[in-house]
Amino acid sequence: MTLHWHGVLQRGTPWADGPAMVTQCPVQPGGNYTYRFNVDGQEGTLWWHAHVSFHRATVYGALVIRPRGGAKAYPFPKPDKEHVVILGEWWNATVYDMERMAFLTGIPAPHADAYTINGKPGDFYNCSAPNRTSTLDIVVGEKLGMISHGDCVCLLAETAKFEVRQNGTYLLRIINAGMNTPLFFKVAKHRLTVVGADACYTKPYKTDVVVVSPGQTVDALMVASAAVGRYYMAASPYDSAIPQGPPFSDTTATAILQYAGARRKTVRWRPPVLPRRPAVNDTATAHRFFSGMTALLRHGKPSAVPLAVDTHMYVTVGLGVSLCQPEQLLCNRSAPPVFSSSMNNASFVVPKNTSLLEAHFSRQPAGVYTRDFPDTPPVVFDYTGDESDNATMQFTTKSTKVKTLRYNATVEMVLQNTRLIAKESHPMHIHGFNFFILAQGFGNYDKKRAERRFNLVDPQERNTIAVPTGGWAVIRFVADNPGMWYMHCHFDAHISLGLAMVLEVLDGPTPETSMPPPPADLPRCS
User: Fold this and answer.
1) What backbone torsions phi and psi does residue 288 show, to the nearest 5 degrees?
2) Alpha-carbon torsion, ordered 350, 353, 357, 361, to 10 deg
3) Contact 147, 266 (CB under 8 A)
4) SS3 of residue 199 by DSSP
5) How is residue 358 annotated by DSSP?
6) Res 130: pLDDT
7) Predicted model pTM
8) What pLDDT does residue 248 have?
9) Considering Cα of 312, then 317, then 321, then 327, what sign does the dihedral take?
10) Do residues 305 and 212 touch, judged by C-beta distance below 8 A?
11) What digits encode the pLDDT tens for the residues 417-476?
12) CATH superfamily of 69-292
């Protein structure tokens, strides 16, 4: 087991970052490791999760960082109350075994069986008849907490509830802890005002739908301005793939927003109001949300976007195929290559015996990693064109390549989605850094046209970006945090297939800008 503190910058504490075999060996059964780190200069909603195998499917939680002055120091109206809303995915299987079988066979793990809000699937999973869209009919056995759907009975305990008072203001801290699915989030009869994303404040952005990819967080204010009653919160899947692959679960996770004073009746109980959900492939709505936010500049401070760039990178992200690895014991070696994924055609494999950070600190990379991750794709092609999707372009090889950056270098990275296998929005997360999103769009990146659209004044700042399906995004950051920092797709089905790389940031000129030695209790590889 390892734990990652998603979005915490870990300045001076890279040993506490958590990804298995990148910054540490996993904690073995019966072992222990204390994560010690400071949170400095960050405010908002982050989260923590397991970072080995598929364990984060159920091992996760919220990490809320409030201003030193408390709620009155927020740069938006003080809410009457705050609610953490964690969106997740659920399988009717043991996720470790599922991930292990996917690796051994080279066949991707199946989609989730259900989505959850605060660990509960809501009223439309298991309790509804097949293809049935009507909601609750009669409340029975209220003391037992049960609801009848006409032909089945389910427990009220399987639906999360949030209590509000009419005209009150509430801060919803929304986290997508799901493994592989971006989600639309709506509250029936209510609008939301986004005020933060990935623990960075945004200018108020009004919307009736929030879109969160795995790894992302959104802070949104909600005024309880509807009539006293009961309303559904709903989280439904966004499937960005073109062409669409195996179908996502079409269930919708629900929670209930219940106003104080809403009385329940035991006969013909009126069901909560359900919001109209976007279509599962509504890329226009997703892109409008992802590209619509800008940063909140506080106290008259100018934007911190670095203007001079030292290192330019153009990185393709997408799917592909690879040969079976020796450890894939159930892989059909007589069949065509198996499913894979890569960045700049390098499909990442974590080392087996020494973590990357230990090899870096000891200055002994040989046999652990190589410093030859390419700054540009090894082959230039029509990245988003259908005609490019052929066996030659799909093929990728396995490696453990890192990109080495000098301390304090300003990095500009173009993330280019590809058509190989399928166009798909990939949520790309960088450990150890926030980055500015200068621009994003569809098709192949065109430098001259894109640079005219760069927002260098108030771009949104994030740690995870959903690269548009069949499109691109430009990010910029300063490499001022020495260590080995994982960059990967936050679809766990893709990271395990190689959609990852590592940024090796060298020490600065002083002890304060250099990596500290490992803690005494750092786990050792068995």
Assistant:
1) -60, -40
2) -150
3) no
4) coil
5) H
6) 39
7) 0.93
8) 64
9) positive
10) no
11) 999 999 999 999 999 999 999 999 999 999 999 999 999 999 999 999 999 999 999 999
12) Cupredoxins -  blue copper proteins (2.60.40.420)
Q: Name residue 493's amino acid.
A: A
What Rg value do the Cα atoms of the chain yield, rounded? 23
Looking at 3.90.420.10, 3.40.50.300, 2.60.40.420, 3.40.30.10, the CATH number of the domain 311-513 comes to: 2.60.40.420
SS3 content of the chain, % helix, strand, coil (to 5): 10, 35, 55
> Which residue is associated with the tokens 């990442």?
348
**Predicted confidence (pLDDT) per residue in 118-145, tens digit:** 999 998 876 443 333 333 333 333 333 3
Q: And the tokens for 34?
A: 């204390």
Output the DSSP codes for 404-427.
EE-TTEEEEEEEEE--SS-B--EE
Residues 235 and 281: beta-carbon distance below 8 Å: no
The structure tokens listed for 251 are: 């269930």
User: Hey, what are 59's tokens?
Assistant: 């091992």
Q: Which has the closest alpha carbon to 310: 134, 79, 112, 478?
A: 478
Q: Which stretches of the chain score pLDDT less than 70? A: 126-157, 244-249, 263-269
Q: Which residues of the chain are in CATH 2.60.40.420 domains? A: 69-292, 311-513
